[in-house]
Design goal:
Layout: H1 10-21, E1 28-33, H2 40-50, E2 57-61, H3 73-79, H4 84-88, H5 92-101, H6 114-129, E3 134-138, H7 146-158, E4 163-169, H8 173-178, E5 190-194, H9 200-211, H10 217-227, H11 231-240, H12 253-264, H13 271-279, H14 285-292, H15 296-308, E6 312-315, E7 318-321, H16 324-332, H17 336-347, H18 353-363, H19 369-384, H20 388-400, H21 406-418, H22 422-435, H23 440-456, H24 459-470, H25 477-493, H26 497-514, H27 517-533, H28 540-549, H29 562-572, H30 576-593, H31 596-612, H32 616-633, H33 636-652, H34 656-673, H35 680-693, H36 696-703, H37 709-712, H38 719-722, H39 725-734, H40 738-755, H41 758-774, H42 778-792, H43 798-814, H44 818-835, H45 838-851, H46 862-872, H47 877-884, H48 888-902, H49 907-918
Parallel strand pairs: 1-4, 1-5, 2-3, 3-4
Antiparallel strand pairs: 6-7
Helix pairs in contact: 1-2, 5-6, 6-7, 9-10, 9-11, 10-11, 12-16, 13-14, 13-16, 13-17, 17-18, 18-19, 19-20, 20-21, 21-22, 21-23, 22-23, 23-24, 23-25, 24-25, 25-26, 25-27, 26-27, 27-28, 27-29, 29-30, 30-31, 31-32, 31-33, 32-33, 33-34, 33-35, 34-35, 35-36, 36-39, 39-40, 39-41, 40-41, 41-42, 41-43, ...
């Protein structure tokens, strides 16, 4: 099947399938756009193959460039296999015209009337539509011959009923202009899919599956750069690789030979012009002429030879190779001295600083002061336009040419961190530290290395480097403030939150003195984070001020950006919809800036927000993407975060073996990284999984060690620090260890009330209900659980609400409130099923089975139901009586029966019960 070749195009094939599966009452079209080799035809063929299964009659054509001059060639292909009955009933003028188109008859002396051809096409399509929907499938619209295009344009504007068009076209301007004839009766009935080049991740999937081997991230990035994400060329590159790396200075032999043969066939005269084109980022005729010394006419003649061979395209003043592989082949086949000479000439011709610096560097064998300055300036410009990889590359060119200063090494390392290359950053920083004496410069290098350690290997090591650097920083208040903010973050994640709070207070004071607004914003944001995690509350004033001072262009780690800090605090305080949108914005910004290394951290928080919101499918998809990215990036922290993320998604989805496997990987990475605070998350996920499976003893053994921190910080029970507590309480209560559970319940309720935090209050009340029920205080248990349900109304966490409903229903049923208990259990069961949490859905169904629930709703008489519904709205007995034209005594009588049947005792319970029945 063609669909098996569509790796990485799941969304596109789904769009094609949905388009074909539901042909509308009016004509519609789906046009697949993209560059040559991007996969348009493969996707198109997949659609054509599956169309008959959707009941579509297919008329298809695949015109080629050589056929575009042949009149009606596309139309002949479309109708060549059409039902003969549809052709035979055409009116004579149309039938004769169609016979000529299909070469069934010799044309007469009179020319075929184009209008008859167009009318015949329209008639055939409409005739076929009477039996089934019709699909006109055309590959490469840009090659449709003019006569066929005119007929198709005429018919398309007049199509009626169940007619669909599936077509492909290149996305260059000429092709789009050439296909403008495709217009349907409704202006908005044409949809377009643009096939984008694969990023390194998508190309990695295609190559791994099709070639049968994997490649390191650096190699994949080079393959992606050479192929421009084109899967056809990327596969050819991958297949030709013998090792794991692609040397930027050479192509693999098999492709190089192909390219070399094509280029050498043009003769020596054109090679200087082609080399100039290959060396230029944006080649123009004027630049090439300036580099080669040719006059315009001679150059155009040379380029015409190359263009006729399909090597280059000349479009007005611009010149380009027809594919990047050809440019790379020309470049690598040219001796190095000639390449350097060409770059030297181009450096004097190009206008922008980045291009000039690159040409100067590539022309040189050693660095001059002028060259190194040019590279530094160009690197800064690249940084400003959000290209950390390019910025690092420019500085590394300077390093290769002899500019090995600690300052340049530190700047390059910073850009490598931003581009997701921590290994290179560490190498540069180690060199800078060894070459520097005590002072602020070495302190800066130590801070940068600490950042690499924090996000790649170890928070413990990172904190040590920062503490060492603070001893050398001197009077540089801005650098000291940055180091203090970073140290507080390191200490927080190394399990030293008390130290972090002290340090971050110092950071705010120093940042204030530094008079650098962005530093103060980062310090205020970090203080809000540390205080929140320590249970000191949400300092919204600090966060607002931090956001005001934030500079989105600042090149700082994502965890220090107020925009990210604000998003995390929103999530942890229960503002989940706000957090979801804010995190998506941060994630998008990282992508646009090419900050691969930051995306794993952002995705971790996005995944947990999705889980809390009950969006488990989205969480699972995001987790899979995060693991793939982390595996390509390497680094213990990235791997730890990614595997924890996927383990959580799998635990909620009830995929036990895979979840345990991910947790084992996360634990191993955590042990290597010293990620103490976040290391509690995989433990928490494992405890949740054990509770989900009913393994309460195992859950206690897993989660109980986490409670030791409550002795030092009893206020620290926010969800980011204590999401394990409800699971531990449930396990303890289940095994009758009530005295151990009670202090945990106390602290949840106390802190929830103190901080006005719905999550703590809701789960605390649920835990209180379980505890009281286990001690036989049914009325107290029900009151606590009802209080929990009220708190859930302020908390958009449907899974947690369903857990509370499960406990409530269980308590209600066991204490003879059968009908209300059954309703609560049904609501919980339905919620778990809807959320996709099968382990919990099974628990709810089992509880229903134990209770003997027969699947019916509580039986109220019609009169009782009317009274119940009105009372639930808040009406008094007198108001209900007046509305129903009965006496207040009758209302009281009905309410007594309603309360008895439903096992409830208050109007509040009645209101909640009626809402659940309606749901």
């Amino acid at each position: 099947m063609t669909t098996s070749r569509l790796l990485g195009r799941e969304a596109e094939i789904r769009a094609v399938t949905e388009f074909l599966a539901a042909p509308g009452a009016v004509p519609s079209a789906l046009v697949i756009e993209g560059e040559p080799g991007i996969g348009k035809t493969t996707l198109w063929l997949a659609g054509v193959e599956q169309a008959p299964a959707h009941g579509l009659t297919v008329l298809s054509a695949r015109p080629a460039a050589a056929e575009s001059a042949l009149s009606h060639s596309t139309l002949a292909d479309l109708l060549g296999n059409a039902d003969e009955a549809a052709l035979s009933v055409l009116p004579d003028p149309q039938r004769v015209a169609m016979d000529h188109v299909l070469l069934r008859a010799e044309a007469g002396e009179a020319p075929t009337d184009p209008r008859a051809v167009s009318a015949a096409l329209l008639s055939v399509v409409h005739r076929l539509c009477t039996a089934s929907p019709v699909l006109l499938a055309i590959d490469d619209l840009q090659w449709v011959d003019d006569s066929s295009a005119r007929a198709l344009a005429y018919a398309a504007r007049r199509f009626a009923g169940r007619v669909t068009v599936l077509a492909t076209t290149r996305n260059d301007r000429d092709s789009i202009d050439a296909t403008s004839w495709l217009q349907l009766s409704a202006p908005d009935s044409i949809r377009r899919i643009r096939l984008r080049p694969f990023d390194s991740s998508g190309l990695h999937e295609v190559i791994t599956t099709r070639v049968g081997r994997s490649f390191p991230r650096a190699t994949m990035l080079e393959i992606q750069a050479v192929s421009h994400g084109n899967p056809f060329y990327g596969l050819e590159l991958a297949r030709s690789l013998e090792g794991n790396t692609l040397d930027p200075a050479s192509l693999p032999t098999s492709l190089a030979e192909v390219v070399r043969t094509r280029i050498r066939g043009l003769g020596d005269g054109v090679r200087p012009a082609l080399l100039a084109v290959a060396c230029l980022a944006i080649p123009t005729v004027a630049l090439v002429a300036g580099a080669t010394g040719d006059d315009a006419d001679d150059l155009m003649a040379l380029l015409a030879v190359a263009e006729s061979a399909g090597i280059v395209d000349v479009d007005g003043s611009s010149v380009r190779f027809t594919h990047p592989l050809l440019a790379r082949g020309v470049y690598t086949d040219t001796p190095a001295p000639l390449r350097r000479s060409m770059h030297a000439r181009l450096a004097n011709l190009v206008a922008d600083p980045e291009s000039r610096a690159r040409h100067l560097a590539l022309a040189a064998t050693e660095g001059t002061a002028e060259l190194l300055d040019a590279l530094d300036v160009a690197s800064e410009l690249a940084r400003k336009r959000g290209a950390p990889s390019a910025a690092a590359e420019l500085l590394d060119l300077g390093l290769e040419l002899g500019g090995h200063t600690p300052e340049r090494q530190i700047r390059s390392a910073a850009h490598h961190v931003g581009a997701g290359n921590p290994r290179r950053a560490r190498e540069l920083l180690d060199q800078a530290i060894s070459r520097s004496g005590p002072g602020s410069l070495r302190a800066n290098a130590l801070m940068m290395l600490a950042v690499v350690e924090l996000f790649d290997d170890s928070f413990v090591e990172g904190a040590g480097l920062l503490e060492r650097g603070l001893d050398e920083v001197g009077d540089d208040s801005a650098l000291r403030a940055r180091m203090l903010v970073t140290l507080s973050f390191a200490q927080l994640n190394a399990g030293r939150s008390a130290d972090a709070l002290t340090v971050v207070e110092d950071a705010v004071r120093v940042a204030t003195r530094s008079e650098v607004p962005t530093l103060l914003g980062q310090a205020l944001g970090m203080r809000a984070m540390v205080q929140f995690i320590r249970g000191k509350g949400f300092d919204r004033a600090d966060v607002r001020r931090a956001l005001q001072l934030d500079d989105p262009r600042a090149n700082v780690p994502i965890a220090f950006r107020p925009s990210m800090q604000s998003a995390m605090l929103a999530a942890w305080s229960g503002q989940l919809e706000t957090a979801r949108d804010a995190l998506a914005s941060v994630h998008r910004g990282c992508r646009e800036r090419g900050e691969e290394g930051e995306l794993v951290f952002v995705a971790f928080h996005m995944c947990f927000v999705a889980i809390w919101l009950g969006e488990l499918r989205e969480a699972g998809e995001l987790a899979e993407e995060t693991v793939e990215r982390a595996q390509q990036l390497g680094g213990n922290v990235s791997l730890f975060v990614a595997f924890t993320t996927r383990a959580a998604a799998r635990a909620y989805a009830g995929v036990e073996p895979d979840a345990r496997s991910d947790l084992a990987h996360a634990a191993a990475a955590s042990a290597r990284s010293g990620f103490v605070t976040m290391a509690e998350w995989p433990v928490t996920v494992l405890g949740f999984l054990e509770v989900s499976l009913g393994n309460h003893a195992e859950a206690i053994a897993t989660l109980a060690p986490l409670t030791t921190k409550l002795t030092e910080a009893p206020e620290a029970t926010e969800i980011i620090a204590a999401s394990f507590m409800p699971d531990l309480v449930e396990a303890l209560v289940h095994l009758g260890r009530l005295d151990e559970a009670e202090p945990l319940v106390d602290v949840l309720e106390r802190n929830g009330a103190r901080l006005d935090r719905p999550w703590m209050s809701a789960v605390g009340a649920r835990c209180r209900g379980m505890l009281l029920a286990a001690r036989g205080d049914v009325h107290g248990a029900l009151r606590a659980l009802e209080r929990a349900m009220v708190e859930h109304d302020c908390l958009p966490m449907p899974f947690e609400r369903a857990r509370t409903q499960l406990v409530l229903g269980t308590v209600q049923r066991r204490w003879r409130h059968e009908q209300s208990g059954t309703a609560s259990l049904r609501a919980a069961s339905a919620a778990f099923e809807h959320l996709g949490t099968p382990l919990w859905a099974t628990r709810a169904r089992a509880e229903l089975d134990r209770a003997g629930a027969d699947g019916t709703q509580p039986v109220l008489t019609p009169s009782e139901r009317r009274v119940a519904r009105l009372t639930a709205t808040g009406m008094t007995n007198g108001e209900v009586a007046e509305r129903l034209f009965i006496s207040p005594k009758t209302v009281e009588f009905h309410l007594a029966g309603i309360y008895r049947k439903l096992g409830i005792r208050s109007r509040a319970e009645l209101g909640r019960h009626m809402r659940e029945l309606d749901d």
